[in-house]
Amino acid sequence: MADIPKEAPEHCPGTQSESAGKASACAGCPNQSLCSSGATRQPDPGIALVKERLSSVQNKLLVLSGKGGVGKSTVTSLISRYLAASNLDKNVGILDIDICGPSQPRVLGALGEQIHQSGSGWSPVYIEDNLSLMSIGFLLGSPSDAVIWRGPKKNGMIRQFLSEVDWGSLDYLILDTPPGTSDEHLSATSYLKGTGITGAIIVTTPPQVALLDVRKEIDFCRKVNIPILGVVENMSVFVCPKCKNTAEIFPASTGGAETMSKELNVEFLGSIPLDPLLARCCDEGKNFLTEMPNSPTVSALNDICNRIIQKCEEEKENCPNNFA
Ligand code: SF4
Known about the structure:
By secondary structure, this protein is of the alpha/beta class. Helix content is 36%, strand content 19%.
C-alpha cells in the first residue's frame, strides 16, 4: 500500500477499500488522486517487513480491554514481568501501542529513557536483562504531551513499531493496546497477519458495564480471527494489606467475568485482587513482584501466567504455521 501523506477526513472509507477515492467523504480529500488510482489497494509491503522482523518471536500476544480504567496496562506489565522473572532463559518484550495514552514507561520505571537507533533498527529499552520495552512514550517530548493523530499517521507509526524494533530473539512479545477496538487494533492485526498472532488476553473488571464492552472485544477477535487465550478479571476484590479481609469494591451483579466467559465459551484465566500498594508501585515505576512478593495479587498472577504459558503451547499445536 502506498503511503498516505496527508490527513484523511474523519469518514474515510479506508484506503484499501473498493470505494477508496470514490466515496462522498473523499471529495476534497488531499489524497483523492492517489486513492482513486488504486495504488493504495496494493498489498502493503509493511506486512512482509513485519513478518521478517518478528520471525524470531515465538509468541505474539495482544492485551485488550473493552473499557479504559480496568487496569489493562498494569496487568500487561505484571504478566510481562512475571513471565520474564519466572524463567530467566526466556526473553519478553512489551510493545506499547496505546498511542494516545502510553503508560508503560511510567509503570515500568523507564520514564525519560531515550530510544537509540542502530543499523539494525530501534533498540528497545531494557527493564531487566530479559525484559525490553518499546513505547510511543519514549518519542514524546514530555509525558503530558498530547498525541493528536488520525488513522493513517497512527497506522504508519504502528507499522514502524512492528517492523523496525530490533527485539532480537523473543519468547513473548506482548502488545499493550488502547481500550476498545480502534485504528491501532486494526493496524496491528493487519500487519501481524503475515506472521500470526498467538492470541489475545482480555482484561476487564467485574461490573456489568465493563463486561458489556468485553463482549464487543470478543466479537472483534472472532471477526478478525484472533484466538482468544482468555479473560482476566482485574480488581475482583479489595484485600486489606493489614488485616487481609476482603471487600467487593466493584460488585459483580451479573456473576462477573467468570460467568460471562462460560456463557461466551472463552477461557477464564483468573482474577487479580485490588491491592492499593500495586497502584503505588506502578506510579513509582517499581517492580511489585519483588516489592510485595507475598501479596495475594502475586499468587493470582502465578496461576494466570501458568495458564497463559499453557494456552500458548496449545495454540502452537493448533496452528503450527504461526510459528514457522
Ligand atoms: S481519498 Fe483516500 S484517504 Fe481520502 S477519504 Fe477517500 S479513501 Fe480516505
